[in-house]
Amino acid sequence: MGRHTEASTTRTTRPPEGQARTLLESFPRVLHHTAKNWKRLMDDRLRERGLSQPRWMAMLHLSKHPQGMMQRELADEMGIECASLAGLLDRMAADGWVERRPCQTDRRAKLVFLSAKSADTLDQIRRVAAQVTRDLLADVPAGELQACRKLLDAINERAQCLSREASDQ
Question: Which residues fall within 8 angstroms of residue 38, CB to CB, at 6 or more apart?
């Protein structure tokens, strides 16, 4: 019930200088390793179903774009080089998972679409993803998850803004 001064409030809400520096230095590493381990768990569970990480990642990204995607856009979303993606898409097309169709607005470009054959596999991928999410977040209180999501959205928005600013210069 005591009165809070600015100094006492600051002490309770901000870590000491050295601790703050360590937190700032470790945050990107922890974020990276969390995403990497999450993806690894997905990969382990989907490998049992005969799906490689590049294949299931391409299918998930393409599923968000029913109107198709240009190959370079898909490569950007997946964080890989276009040359690496080309071979993957060749194999996926040969196996009947994707189709390449001419782009109506750019005669030189082809759009990549998921084929009808991929629907059942995509459902499996989504079920595994949902289960992995439930397994990893089972003990996280809803309020903490909401706060984390809000923070990650803000960081992502800021990163996109800074990236746009850098590309404009």
Answer: 132, 136
DSSP state at residue 112: E
Q: Which of 32, 28, 54, 31 has the alpha carbon at shortest distance from 43?
A: 54
CB 56 within 8 A of CB 46: yes
Helices 53-63 and 71-78 sit at what angle, rounded to 10 degrees?
Answer: 120
Read off the amino acid at residue 74: L
Residue type at 111 in one-letter notation = L
pLDDT in tens, 33-67: 999 999 999 999 999 888 999 999 999 999 999 99
Question: Measured between alpha carbons, how far is 90 from 58 in angstroms, rounded to an integer?
Answer: 12
DSSP strand E in the chain: where? 69-70, 98-102, 110-114
Q: What is the pTM for the complete model shown? A: 0.75
Instruction: From 57, 4, 17, select the one nearest 35 (Cα to Cα).
Output: 57
91 by DSSP, 3-state: which?
helix
d(CA 22, CA 162): 23
